[in-house]
Design goal:
This protein is an alpha/beta fold. The chain folds into 2 domains: 214 residues, Phosphoenolpyruvate-binding domains (TIM Barrel), CATH 3.20.20; 54 residues. The protein has an 8-stranded parallel beta barrel, surrounded by 4 helices. Helix 11 packs across helix 12.
């Protein structure tokens, strides 16, 4: 991962004020939404407004455009409009690799991201993640819950199979993957708990529906001070052990091997990337 994706904020592409405000928000990435957040009659105008907005500076924030599906009257025009000028094109309801092929034929340069939000998408996650044009995956847990007929639970038990399949697929193929949204945007405790669950599972970050959620996501998905300190001590201890011809070290009463050092280096690299983003 070359940049952090702790907080990935949806912004309606029809809302000029929100797109302007996004330039000042500490989100790692913005999803400019032409799909669910824009009424049918406003979609062509929103597309043109977004094209103009993306010609301005959004700093280091990743700029991701969620287009309408190619099975709609707007999808092909959306894809052609953002074949360049954005950091990624996000395709809704990806259920099989062929869904990516269709957009790839229209978007020759910009990386593709996939919304993972259908039961078929969960079952085909490995093949989708293996697509050569894919760079990232976004969990669409609201649509997935609708298709499953599941009830909301704070522990997200109905989501675990789908989340796990997509996470495994993303990690197997080196893709970015961000967790689904938390709908109760005024419930900070609930948001924090769901962010911590996603972080513990291994997600890179969380999609968000309100700017007030950014601070919590950024904090949870960043390495803590204790994690950074431990990573440094693990690397130092392992290097010292290696210099003595040993294959393992001990830190805080726990064995440290090559795999732990790789994780430690990843922790420090993520912390450094976050620091660069904030500078």
């Amino acid at each position: 991962m070359t940049r952090p994706y702790r907080s990935v904020l949806y912004i309606p592409a029809a809302n000029a004020r929100a797109m302007d405000k996004a330039r000042t928000l500490p989100a790692d990435a913005i999803i400019f939404d032409l799909e669910d957040a824009v009424a049918p009659g406003e979609k062509p105008a929103a597309r043109e407004m977004l094209k103009q907005a993306l010609q301005t500076d959004y700093g280091a924030r990743a700029r991701i455009v969620r287009i309408n599906g190619l099975d709609t009257e707007w999808g092909q025009d959306d894809a052609r409009a953002f074949a360049s000028g954005a950091d990624a094109v996000l395709i809704p309801k990806v259920s099989r690799p062929e869904d990516l092929d269709r957009v790839a034929a229209l978007v020759s340069e910009t990386p593709l991201w996939a919304m993972m939000e259908t039961p078929a998408g969960m079952l085909n996650a490995g093949a989708i993640a293996a697509h050569p044009r894919l760079a990232g995956m976004v969990m669409g847990t609201n649509d997935l819950a609708k298709d499953l007929g599941s009830r909301f639970r704070p522990d997200r038990l109905p989501m675990m199979a789908g989340l796990g399949l997509c996470l495994l697929a993303a990690r197997a193929h080196g893709r970015v993957i961000v967790d689904g949204v938390y709908n109760a945007f005024k419930d900070d405790d609930g948001l924090r708990a769901e962010c911590e669950q996603g972080r513990d599972m291994g997600f890179d970050g969380k999609t968000l529906i309100h700017p007030a959620q950014v601070e919590i996501a950024n904090a949870v998905f960043a390495p803590s001070g204790d994690e950074i300190d431990l990573a440094r001590r693990q690397i130092e201890a392992f290097d010292a052990a290696s210099a003595q011809g040993k294959g393992v070290a001990v830190v805080d009463g726990r064995i440290v091997e090559n795999l732990h050092v790789a994780t430690a280096r990843g922790t420090l690299a993520k912390a450094e990337a976050i620091a660069r983003l904030a500078s």
